[in-house]
Amino acid sequence: MLKTHPSLSGGAAIGSLVVLIASISATGALASAPPVNPESLERGVCARVASVAAIIEKNGPPGLRDRLGAEMKIAQWRNR
Amino acid sequence: MAPRPDRELGLRLLVLQPTPFCNIDCAYCYLSDRQSRARMSLATLDRACSLVFGSGLVGPRLEVAWHGGEPLVVPLEWYESAFELIAARCPPGVEIGHCFQTNGLLLDEGWARFFAQTKAGVGLSIDGPADLHDANRRTRRGGGTHAGAMRAARLLEEQGVPFHVITVLTERALDMPDELFDFYVSSGIREVGFNVEEIEGAHASSSLAGTEARFRRFIRRFFDLVWDSPERIKVRELESALSMALLDEPVVDEQNVPFAIVSVSVDGMVSTFSPELLGARSPRFESFAFGRVDSHRLSDIAIEPRFATINSEIQAGVRACERACPYFRWCGGGAPANKLFETGRFDSTETMHCRLMRQVIFDEALRGFERQFPSGVEAC
Known about the structure:
The complex is a heterodimer.
Chain A (H helix, E strand, L loop, with lengths): L16 H10 L18 H15 L4 H5 L5 E2 L5
Chain B lengths: L10 E6 L25 H12 L4 E9 L9 H14 L5 E8 L6 H10 L2 E5 L4 H7 L9 H13 L5 E6 L7 H10 L4 E6 L15 H17 L5 E2 H11 L5 E2 L7 E4 L4 E4 L8 E2 L3 E2 L3 E2 L5 H4 L3 H20 L11 H8 L8 H21 L1 H6 L1
Parallel strand pairs in B: 1-2, 1-9, 2-3, 3-4, 4-5, 5-6, 6-7
Antiparallel strand pairs in B: 9-10, 10-13, 11-12
Helix pairs in contact in B: 1-2, 6-7, 7-12, 8-12
């Protein structure tokens, strides 16, 4: 489960994805990671992101991406 | 047609400068007027509230960032009045969240109680261990400030006030990822955000210029340390990059959206886009103060020719990034202030700041994930 922490930005509280991902990794859920088209490696960063999303989609808690919320799609001013 | 913020973003951040004065004199500071002891009047604050809340652009939540100078040089009593004033002027249905970014030297139990009572976010500026911190974060007489900043951290911890630390990375820090990690953990610091020494405003050069490979090694090692013991420390950049990687939609940078951020200076000048633009000068545009709280509405500013020119150039820069950069989807087009201060223009693309803080960070966040799932990534 995502734990609630105060956000650096003071905005909506979010959990630690690093903690979550590390816990998924520790469970060995990886064996069910979905295959991705090898040609996607040519797409560089896009392919890497697709791989991340696919692994989390398959092995992460249901609805995780929805729970990240709209706030996370905003690159925030960092001097706060 | 007057530019309006993205509907979903709205006017989301109000940056207020209670004073430009800073009680210390950091080597990398971008503020040129940090010796001025001017203080924002409550009348100016009241007009700023009218400007913001009367704009129709504020959504369900507005964050108010008290950013200086050093905000704590203004007495606590002033903030008690200011918070009351903002609460009184805030329309129903709008939630206000306050946050302070402070060097901590003036933080005492009274401030800690105030932060706790108001649930204000607190960011402490601490650059790591004493020798690293004191190399740049000095008093005007050249003395170190680390001891005072750490005293503030301990006080907040004792009082149960949540806080995070912002560390400005300079060239010296790049060889010290383990020392920085150990420092945070041993000091009880649980949340950290990294900024870089930027080429910005009065600070015309950066020790990080030309250090991209070393910066990458630093980030890689630091992120590895975090992945290896993720319960110990939360790093803003790593969390943010992973979140962005999981989203379906492209990222929007709030600094590129007109009026998503509104900045008001101590004397009531109004700006938008990157807050660092307020008070900055440019040969091409002179200043980035687009109006005054006592004589303008945001809708007036939106039709000012200089605003229109700058907004047009900023949007051209975002489009240029979209065409040129494979990271655009997870960046949103970079920060206008960094583009201007590094290249002289807003319609430029890659900067040192974006290479370090957007590209390297994103790469290394993905690499850290791949390290967690090696066989899964190979299968891809």
